[in-house]
Amino acid sequence: MPFKPVEQAKCPKCGKSVYAAEEMLAAGQKWHKTCFKCGLCHKRLDSTNATEHGGELYCKQCYGRKFGPKGYGFGGGAGCLSMDKGEHLGNTECSMANKPTLDPTYG
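^ that's the sequence the OP posted. Answer follows.
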């Protein structure tokens, strides 16, 4: 009877085998510790701040920014309103029709 090695789980991010010493569990899959990062800001994740959407991992802040409620009334007041759409993190799905423009004649 020939020896058959045990088939190791493949990391969804890099596609390489994940061994027990380096595995992180999330979204029903095994990930390398080095691949266990947010899909937008690339911040290292752990079990307390990892969320999943469509097979991709996100930190809770980026997940809320990308998939959370949008519009007036979800920020909790004027102090929480922001013009940040996450463009510096690679988010291009949000569009603003009333985007402010810089007027060169305005001092």
